[in-house]
């Protein structure tokens, strides 16, 4: 059974609650892969983020025998094999639509969708896991983009959500789509039809906001 974990950001490491959740969900710990959002540039930045998040697992006693980055330093075939054989796949944050384009270019969409282990999305990675990827205006784009995502989960999310800083754009798009505002340090777990919420999360629907 596949386990999909949607996250936003962890600035100060995993909380005890989130660490306990990962301890429970991540039972196979042979191989961990960090799938970059930018495959062909800024490799040093990618490597720094890889080490940053891997260290969060290490600090909570979750150790992997092998851990590696998946990006343009691999061929498409190598990238596909690395993701397919990993126990845990981490989809990085960053430029959401650029990340999705790289997933397409390197043939990773079906590999991710058919993965049988634990797939963790962070920010852009979480958005792209959805049936409907909703990418509101951000530092990368000054306009709303909605497209068919990887299709692993039915939940569309708005990462880094902060009550009191809600854009009219987000409220308007919620007239057509249900969106979950995922605050930093919070997690949504999807397994089959079961959905679990941890931390501060809000449901945004028809212009109304309700805490989950």
Number of helical segments with 4 or more residues? 7
Number of strands: 13
Secondary-structure element order, N to C: EHEHEHEHHEHEEEHEEEEE
The assigned structural class equals alpha/beta
How does the major sheet shape up? Answer: 7 strands, mixed
What is the residue-mean pLDDT, rounded to a whole number? 96
User: Which residues sit in consecutive blocks of at least 5 with pLDDT less than 50?
Assistant: none
> N-to-C terminal Cα separation, in Å?
25 Å
| Rounded radius of gyration (Å) | 16 Å
Q: Which geometry do the CA atoms define? A: globular
Helix content: 25-40%
What would you say this structure looks like, in words?
This protein starts with a strand and ends with a strand. With 212 residues, it is an alpha/beta fold. It has helices at residues 16-25, 43-59, 76-84, 96-105, 109-113, 124-129, 168-173, and strands spanning 3-7, 31-35, 66-70, 88-91, 118-122, 132-135, 145-148, 156-159, 179-182, 187-191, 194-198, 201-205, 208-211. The protein is 30% helix and 28% strand. Strand 2 (31-35), helix 2 (43-59) and strand 3 (66-70) form a beta-alpha-beta unit. The strands form three sheets. Strands 3-2-4-5-1-10-11 form a seven-stranded mixed β-sheet, with helices on both faces. The protein has a four-stranded mixed β-sheet with strand order 8-9-12-13. A two-stranded antiparallel ribbon has the order 6-7. It has seven helices and 13 strands.
Keywords:
212 residues, alpha/beta, seven-stranded mixed beta sheet, four-stranded mixed beta sheet
């Amino acid at each position: 059974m596949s386990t999909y974990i949607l996250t936003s950001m962890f600035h100060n490491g995993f909380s005890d609650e989130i660490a306990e959740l990962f301890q429970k969900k991540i039972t196979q710990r042979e191989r961990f892969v960090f799938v970059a959002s930018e495959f062909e540039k800024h490799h040093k930045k990618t490597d720094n983020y890889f080490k940053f998040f891997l260290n969060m697992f290490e600090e909570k006693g979750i150790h992997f025998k092998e851990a590696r980055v998946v990006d343009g330093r691999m061929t498409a075939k190598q990238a596909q094999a690395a993701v397919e054989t990993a126990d845990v796949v981490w989809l990085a944050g960053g430029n959401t639509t650029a990340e999705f384009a790289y997933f397409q270019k390197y043939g990773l969409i079906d590999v991710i969708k058919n993965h049988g282990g634990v797939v963790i999305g962070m920010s852009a990675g979480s958005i792209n896991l959805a049936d409907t990827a909703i990418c509101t205006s951000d530092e990368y784009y000054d306009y709303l983009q909605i497209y068919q995502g990887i299709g692993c989960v039915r939940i569309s999310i708005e990462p880094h959500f902060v009550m009191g800083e809600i854009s009219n754009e987000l409220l308007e798009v919620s007239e057509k789509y249900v969106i979950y505002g995922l605050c930093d340090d919070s997690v949504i777990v999807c397994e089959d039809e079961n959905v679990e919420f941890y931390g501060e999360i809000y449901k945004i629907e028809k212009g109304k906001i309700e805490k989950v």
